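A.,

Following up on our hallway conversation. Structure tokens first:
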């Protein structure tokens, strides 16, 4: 799986992608993450200032990300996908998808992540900023608008991380074992580990007896009820 991120702040991803499960997945070449900064597609003037935003038509607060540099960044990603596909057999040609984050978009969930992991090998994630991206970008590329929840964020970088994390978990080998997928096993939101009795401020907090019983049937029933 290759993720192609369109963002003016690629550094935001550094810590998250370099650690833990995703870091290992990238190192083991199970996933690949590439970045395309719209600012790099603006010809630098003498003062080297390359604006990617401008005032919205029709008035209103804030600024809007301009279409041209974003379109060029997405086009670059598409060219990379096409170039990579030339190296594989005809029947293995990668299928790609372009996603643009929007509060009014389709709600992202585990089912969407599973389907994406099975169906696509390249996903382009357009991360907007300010008041959003010129609507013509979505129209030109027919990008699917996706929302990760009923709230508004400063930019699309966090949603992009959410999709990368959730979709990558569905890729064979990323978690090591299929059973590691919480959604594929009976799981309670309440979990315990050692010590069996936790002492805190002169009070004892014990692990539920059923989890110490060794009775797998009762344990599974307990998990289902939580």
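Then the amino acids I'd put at each of the 226 positions:
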């Amino acid at each position: 799986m290759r993720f192609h991120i369109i963002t003016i702040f690629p550094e935001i991803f550094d810590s998250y992608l370099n650690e833990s499960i995703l870091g290992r997945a990238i190192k083991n070449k199970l996933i690949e993450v590439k970045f395309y900064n719209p600012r790099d597609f603006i010809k630098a003037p003498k003062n080297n200032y390359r604006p990617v935003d401008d005032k919205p038509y029709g008035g209103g607060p804030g600024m809007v990300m301009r279409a041209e540099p974003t379109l060029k960044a997405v086009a670059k990603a598409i060219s990379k996908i096409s170039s990579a596909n030339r190296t594989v057999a005809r029947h293995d040609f990668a299928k790609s998808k372009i996603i643009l984050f929007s509060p009014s978009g389709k709600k992202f969930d585990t089912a969407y992540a599973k389907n994406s992991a099975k169906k696509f090998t390249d996903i382009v994630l357009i991360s907007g900023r300010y008041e959003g991206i010129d609507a013509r970008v979505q129209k030109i590329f027919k990008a699917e608008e996706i929302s990760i929840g009923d709230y508004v964020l400063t930019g699309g970088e966090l949603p992009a991380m959410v999709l990368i994390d959730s979709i990558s978990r569905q890729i064979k080998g990323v978690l090591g074992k299929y059973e590691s997928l919480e959604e594929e096993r009976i799981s309670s939101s309440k979990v315990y580990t050692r010590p069996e009795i936790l002492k805190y401020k002169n009070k004892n907090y014990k692990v539920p007896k059923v989890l110490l019983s060794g009775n797998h049937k009762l344990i599974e029933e307990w998990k289902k009820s939580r």
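Strands lie at 2-6, 32-36, 53-54, 64-65, 96-107, 122-126, 144-147, 197-200, 203-206. Curious whether your intuition agrees with the design.

B.
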